[in-house]
């Protein structure tokens, strides 16, 4: 989905990556154009045309990147909500299994604890690769197999069993939504087009700096840094399992700890 070295970068490093590279390219390209123009005199320099091109490209880039930044922020917030909903669905299934109280239901509850542990231990670290864990899939299958062994005998037990099935379905759907959320990142074409567009901006800035003044250098450099910082922020938010600002598993961890803490009490009740 992205170069492997990006996985080792912090938020600050990701944020600075684009401006540093852009400024370096701008410097090299400006020096190359100035040297070439001094020796070959091949440019019929028109400052009005270059100024107009600079304003148009900067304005267009700010509008597009600003819109996309708002979009990915909304998407990231939605992923957080999905993780919280998944945690609540696990908590809800746990309550229904305890309410049933039969031996198969309590075995299914133990499988549910194992499943929650597998999410945190096996699946969460590999989500950044764009898929779930086969170990977690097997753990979820174990939950459903134990639920299938529940044999309600009374109308009340049948009603509870129906609610258990609904809760189990929500648990499975919550996992599917979380895994699919990994694929909600912006397509690679967006970053390709964005990088090519920024390269175009750099070329225009380099042309403008053929006739360089201190004020012009500072102005164009600051504008380029601001533009690439926006692209860096988009990359950080758009890749929710990378960097420091990543989607948190705290709600799932809290539910798992609560299930484990409750487990000895249930076994004492059986005794």
Automatic annotation (TrEMBL):
Pfam families: Bestrophin-like
Transmembrane portions of the chain: 12-36, 57-79, 189-210, 217-237
Domain of life (superkingdom): Bacteria
InterPro entries: DUF4239 (IPR025333)
Keyword S-adenosyl-L-methionine among record annotations: no
Protein keywords: Membrane, Transmembrane, Transmembrane helix
Residues annotated as signal peptide: none
Name under which the protein is recorded: DUF4239 domain-containing protein
